[in-house]
Amino acid sequence: MHRRAITFSRNVFLPLTTVCHNRCAYCCFRTPVGNECIMPPDEVIGTLTRGAALGCTEALFTFGERPEREEGFREFMHAVGYANVLEYCYAMCKQSIAIGILPHTNAGILTYDEMARLQEVNASMGLMLETTAELPAHRNSPGKQPEVRIEMIENAGRLKIPFTTGLLIGIGESERDREESLEAIADIHRRFGHIQEVIIQNFCPKEGTPMEDARIPDTSEFCAVIRMAREILPPDIAVQIPPNLADAARLINCGVNDLGGVSPLTIDYVNPEHPWPAINRLQEVVGNAELVERLCIYPQFIEKGWYHPNIEGLIRKLREVIQERES
Q1: What is the distance between the alpha carbons of residues 126 and 66, in angstroms, rounded to a whole number?
Q2: Which of 73, 111, 115, 185 is 20 to 30 A removed from 153 (C-alpha atoms)?
Q3: How many CA atoms lie within 13 A of 86 on its CB side?
Q4: Which CATH number covers residue 206?
Q5: How far apart are CA 258 and CA 131, in angstroms?
Q6: Do 27 and 209 form a contact (C-beta atoms < 8 A)?
């Protein structure tokens, strides 16, 4: 009898800018426009190089949504040598491929054409749905309108981009909101077939934010959402929890089958107060299950050929690297 498999990827986290047009009530990632608001190219390349030496296979590129809408940002972007953050991201993704790490970009809301452009240099992409509910936490965040996020996830499906989405639990949504959000994701996947994983992420209050005193969902409530996700989502979608944010060892048996990207090098810049578990300790987290390393593009999408020719050679090379590590 085969043991249940729990997957993860070995990654580096690269926040290209922390400037963001949204004003979410729970966020500590966003910073004002100013010095050091952009990760410089030499730091990106240095991180990628060190990550490759540590065996990382995924470069998670992330940044605030539509930073060009913030006054003064373009001047800082031009000083780095690029017209906008998406042009910069494209260039750094090319560097990542050359160094030997597959890019995965979470850029916030993108148009169809912007995603098609980034698809040339990304093995997968992502956007958290968070919730289909209209919440006070998102009152000053135009990019968090549910219909806008759903449209982008659907467009990713039209483009055949292997995709990550998910729910943020504990930001004011009801149990019914969670159910509706999962049903929306399941419906999109049944139509397009491109969602490889759904993250069930617990909200972690941040000091100095409007929601710093908000209630934290306990383990039993979090487990109930994971079980709901496993019941509602099609079986070919992985249910993921971040092992640095939750008591993953207690939640594995609730229906989790993926731990997402875990970095041996970089911190979680969105939740910097929560360090990653060491990769050599992940087996303790999954208990009796089998721990299996994966790429940021899942095997079924590799078999379908849902990737750009630019990254075909690297995908094949890194699959071999992982197979050698497992043997």
Answers
A1: 16
A2: 73
A3: 16
A4: 3.20.20.70
A5: 21
A6: yes
Q: Domain count of the chain?
A: 1
Give the count of beta carbons closer than 10 Å to the beta carbon of residue 57: 28
Look at residues 2, 4, 39 and name the one whose alpha carbon lies nearest to residue 19. 39
What integer pLDDT is reported at residue 87 of this predicted model?
A: 98
Q: Six-digit token pair at 218?
A: 């306990």
Strand-strand pairing, 163-169 and 5-17: unpaired
DSSP H or E run through 161: none
Confidence grade of residue 36 (pLDDT, cut at 50, 70, 90): confident
| Per-residue pLDDT tens over the stretch 276-315 | 889 999 999 999 999 999 999 999 999 999 999 999 999 9
pLDDT the model gives residue 305: 97
pTM listed for this prediction = 0.95
Q: Residue 291's closest CA among 243, 225, 247, 246?
A: 243
Helix (H, G, I), strand (E, B) or coil at 206: coil
The length of the chain, given as a count of residues: 327
Residue 208 pLDDT class (50, 70, 90 cuts): confident
What is the distance between the alpha carbons of residues 245 and 243, in angstroms, rounded to a whole number? 6
